[in-house]
Specification:
nine-stranded mixed beta sheet, Aminopeptidase, 2 domains, 20 strands, alpha/beta, Leucine Aminopeptidase, subunit E, domain 1
Length: about 500
């Protein structure tokens, strides 16, 4: 998609999208549009209330004007969703040259923010989930064509800022769609080596370092918990290490942020096998890894002023004669021994190695891990928020603020030492599961806390309910790329 910024309403594209907020100042915006089209304001007001997602089509000469309702006081996420839905529903109707007008007295917020959200949504609306379907002509999205053009019409004084915002919205969307493909891919098309190659190709394209440890190197490093989970797999594990620094270092130096993502490419539950009803969705159990991949790629694309280190321990969790068994005691990179109570609590095992490796070898200023970790989080928050755990109030507040700005919402749960008994073992240094159907998300967080080397600024995001979800864009659950926008916003607001 080609982006153009203009400050005139002359020579309009064949289709122009005009976003409008509900309530005040609805009437001034409609009056301006009515004057431009020769339409009666009263008729427009009768047919269009600017409710979220509402569309009214007007015609002026050879131009179609799509009035797109955003509802009252829309957030960034609500603007994005309205534009993505509009783009998706009109994939066959839009011409290859489309306009987005913020020049009809319809701007009720910050122009760059609106522009970024709108462009991001329009681009995401081009995504097609049918990666492995037989392709037929004419089923693509017009705006997905390389020569398709989006003309953003804004006031001249805001043109430069809006152009930057538009480019950012498109850049983020391109990475999000790549992440969609990764998470939506079935496990036979996505093994640990595939995740590693995704990172390697991204690093080469956008200029950040990627190092992948193979099984022999993983053994040499002593990443025993990752190796234990991998014992039942036909695919060798991968330990993916990424590092990004901008080309220009600011005078005040850079904050170093460590990101660790769970990269389980399919989770059967191991010998503690899952019920079959929804097991096919376990192809998404690398949603935390995807968020780390996406964040680092976009940071490198946009040359954000931050030093990022990323680690993705990757394997699947399968059933085999060699699989770890409940009651086994395994080693870990930290040196601590772990009693395996439930082999379906495997994500925290590989994260234990990833977190300890990050803390010891990179010593970041802040350390954040993301994982589709527990059903407990889904039972607590449904599909609307991730669980946030942190040992640092400032970091927790920063992530919460980022979640409110982006709409990728998180809510903090406690890490009280009262829950330490959940990971206490009689035969090893700790156990991976309490064995009780209560406080599952908290117990998992307390387990992870034991492997952060007492890092003073750590956060754990349990994204089980939000990384893979129902939406209007697919008939079954599909990837959301949750965490990418959240982390990017957090990074851009670092002091």
């Amino acid at each position: 998609m080609i982006l153009k910024i203009t400050s005139t309403l002359k020579s309009l594209p064949p289709a122009v999208i005009i976003p409008v907020t509900a309530g005040q100042p609805l009437q001034p915006a409609l009056s301006t549009i009515a004057a431009a089209t020769g339409t009666e304001v009263a008729l427009m007001e009768a047919d269009f209330k600017a409710e979220h997602g509402e569309v009214l089509i007007l015609y002026k000469d050879n131009v179609r004007l799509f009035l797109l309702g955003l509802g009252k006081a829309p957030s960034f996420q609500e603007i994005l969703k309205a534009f993505r839905s509009f783009s998706n529903k009109n994939r066959q109707k839009l011409p290859p040259r489309v306009g987005l007008s913020l020049l009809h007295q319809n701007l009720a917020g910050d122009a760059p923010t609106w522009t970024e959200a709108a462009v991001n949504g329009l681009a995401l609306g081009t995504y097609q989930i049918g990666l492995y379907k037989k392709k037929t002509e004419g089923n693509g999205h017009v705006l997905a064509a390389p020569d398709a053009t989006l003309e953003v019409m804004v006031e001249e004084r805001a043109a430069e800022a809006c152009e930057k915002a538009a480019q950012q919205g498109l850049a983020v969307a391109e990475t999000q769609m790549s992440i969609f493909n990764l998470v939506n891919a079935p496990s036979n098309k996505k093994n640990p080596e595939d995740l590693a190659q995704w990172a390697v190709k991204s690093g080469k394209k956008y200029g950040y370092n990627v190092r992948v440890l193979n099984k022999e190197q993983i053994m040499a490093e002593g990443l025993h918990a990752l190796l234990a989970v991998n014992r039942g797999s036909e695919y060798p594990p991968a330990f993916i290490i990424m590092e990004y620094r901008p080309k220009e270092i600011p005078a005040g130096g850079l904050k170093k942020i460590g990101l660790v993502g769970k990269g389980v490419t399919f989770d059967t539950g191991g010998l503690s096998i899952k019920p079959s009803a929804n097991m096919h969705y376990m192809k998404s159990d690398m949603g935390g890894a995807a968020a780390v991949f996406g964040t680092i790629e976009v940071a490198a694309k946009l040359q954000l002023p931050v030093h990022l280190a990323g680690i993705v321990p990757s394997t699947d969790n399968s059933v085999d004669a060699k699989s770890i068994k409940p009651s086994d005691v395994i080693d870990s990179y930290s040196g601590k021994t772990i009693e395996v109570i439930d082999t379906d609590a495997e994500g925290r095992l590989i994260l234990a190695d990833g977190l300890c490796y990050m803390a010891r070898n990179y010593k970041p200023d802040a350390m954040i891990n993301l994982a589709t970790l527990t059903g407990s989080t889904v039972r607590t928050f449904g599909y609307h928020a991730a669980g946030l755990f942190s040992n640092n109030d400032e970091l927790a507040a920063q992530l919460y603020a980022a979640s409110e700005r982006t709409g990728e919402r998180v809510w903090r749960l406690p890490l009280w030492d009262a829950y330490k008994d959940d990971v206490k073992s009689d035969v090893a240094d700790l156990r991976n599961f309490s064995g009780r159907p209560i406080a599952g998300a908290i117990g998992a967080a307390k387990f992870l806390e034991a492997f952060i080397e007492e890092h003073p600024a750590w956060a754990h995001l349990d994204i089980a309910g939000v990384a893979f979800n129902d939406s209007e864009f697919s008939s079954q659950k599909s990837a959301t790329a949750f965490g990418v926008r959240l982390l990017l916003d957090y990074i851009t607001h670092l002091g």
